[in-house]
TrEMBL record:
UniProt cross-references to InterPro entries, sorted A to Z: NA-bd_OB-fold, RNA-bd_AU-1/RNase_E/G, RNase_E/G, S1_domain
One GO biological process term: rRNA processing
SUPFAM superfamilies: Nucleic acid-binding proteins (SSF50249)
Domain annotation S1 motif: ranges: 33-98
Keyword vocabulary terms for this entry: Hydrolase, Magnesium, Metal-binding, RNA-binding
Top-level division of the source organism's lineage: Bacteria
PANTHER family named among the record's database cross-references: RIBONUCLEASE (PTHR30001), RIBONUCLEASE G (PTHR30001:SF0)
PROSITE patterns membership: S1
Any GO CC annotation of this UniProt entry: cytoplasm
Native organism: Paenibacillus arenilitoris
Name of protein: Rne/Rng family ribonuclease
């Protein structure tokens, strides 16, 4: 974890290879998860949406589905008009689910979620869910049973992937902390005027530790002495067994933390437009406001058998790299991949299967929709925060062209 002025950067390495990258300014960012008391400014029946003043520069957007009950089975069979649910001037509590991006305001919901280390607490959801990434049915049943035992009244709980194998005591502590936090938020909502911020989501360090810590991690490095104590406290709270693996990095041979572990170099390569593949092929990566397009090319790779074998091997290699880069860049929205044309249907199926396998490793919900009529692979990835690519690049005020901002460890 690298601290540079107001910028905090974190990298997750597996066998020395970058698999995830996080970037956040210390102040004025990280709005997703924040809870506000807002006031409805305008209701638009034609869009089934409302605009809510939560105190930010632009009013937040609230769609009708985010007003209905979080439990689908408890929603009305006929979707009502939004005019039946909210009125201009009405005050209500909302949570940011998608940050303001470009000229759009934040998107908000009344389906509140408070993530903990092992579970997600939902004060009004009235159900227990278990992460689909937890495979054994016996473990899923155990966690669901514990969830039902822990929740009170209309509460909902989702067991995160990290909950697999955890004790009931750990899960109980997690839900107790989240419940106390929600009561404090609700109390502030009763006392404060609208618009007011009632709860600020955890900063990047807590989120990274909460979401990525695993007991098999070898080392946790941080290069800022002032932040070391905070990191130690978070480890004590979440995973005490890892405290001994937390280390303060001091420059070695004049090299900063991200240089010593080759993170800076890997980040630079990951955000290039043209990304080389180990075999000699390459990707061409284009991101727009509407979607992300990835083109796969064989490049210098000619293979040793026939053309179809070369194409298939390049596409499989590309699938692995694309999945890794989606996580590093934190890409959201629609993703279109133009793999090299394959003649054999079984090869197409195996490439899509590989993308599905890699999607299951992604903490962010990623859905592989399949092949289009033009032979393109279509995917979607949940978009909540401004992705790292946009934070690392800026727009020229004169021509609008993209330009690289300060990058890791610079």
């Amino acid at each position: 974890m690298h601290v540079h002025g107001e910028m905090l950067q974190a990298a997750l390495l597996e066998n020395g290879r970058l698999v995830e990258f996080f970037l956040e300014k210390s102040k004025g960012s990280g709005l997703v998860g924040n809870v506000y008391k807002g006031r409805v400014v305008n209701v638009l029946p034609g869009m089934q949406a409302a605009f809510v003043d939560i105190g930010l520069a632009k009013n937040a957007f609230l769609y009708i589905d985010e007003l209905l009950h979080p439990h689908l089975e408890k929603q009305p069979k006929r979707k009502p008009s939004i005019k039946e649910l909210v009125n201009p001037g009405q005050e209500l509590l909302v949570q940011i689910m998608k940050e303001p991006i470009g000229g759009k305001g934040a998107r908000v919901t009344t389906h509140f979620t408070l993530p903990g280390r092992w579970l997600v607490y939902m004060p009004n959801a009235d159900y227990v869910g278990v992460s689909k990434k937890i495979g054994p049915e016996s473990e899923r049943g155990r966690l669901r049973s514990i969830g039902e035992k822990l929740r009170e009244k209309e509460e909902g709980i989702i067991m995160r992937t990290a909950a697999e194998g955890e004790s009931e005591q750990s899960l109980h502590s997690d839900v107790t902390r989240a419940r106390a936090l929600w009561h404090a938020i609700a109390d502030r909502g009763e006392r404060l005027p609208a618009p007011s911020e009632l709860h600020k989501e955890a900063g990047l360090m807590r989120r990274v530790f909460r979401d990525t810590l695993k007991t098999d991690m070898d080392e946790i490095w941080i290069d800022d002495a002032a932040s070391l104590d905070e990191a130690a406290e978070l480890l004590q709270e979440m995973t005490p067994g890892l405290q001994g693996r937390l280390k303060l990095y001091e420059p070695r041979n004049g090299q900063a933390l991200f240089d010593w572990f080759r993170v800076g170099m890997q980040v630079e390569k990951a955000f290039e437009r043209r990304i080389s593949l180990p075999s000699g092929g390459h990707l061409v990566w284009e991101e727009t406001e509407a979607l992300t397009v990835v083109d796969v090319n064989t490049g210098k790779f000619t293979g040793s058998h026939d053309l179809e074998d070369t194409v298939f091997r390049t596409n499989m290699e590309a699938a692995d790299e694309i999945a890794r880069l989606l996580r590093i860049r934190d890409v959201g929205g629609i993703i279109i991949v133009d793999f090299i044309d394959m003649q054999h249907e079984q090869h197409r199926e195996r490439v899509m299967q590989r993308m599905n396998e890699k999607a299951r490793d992604d903490r962010t919900k990623t859905t592989v929709l399949g092949w289009t009529r033009l032979g393109l692979l279509e995917m979607t990835r949940k978009k909540a925060r401004e992705n790292a690519a946009m934070q690392l690049t800026g727009r020229c005020a004169s021509c609008g062209a993209a330009s690289r901002r300060e990058t890791a460890n610079k």
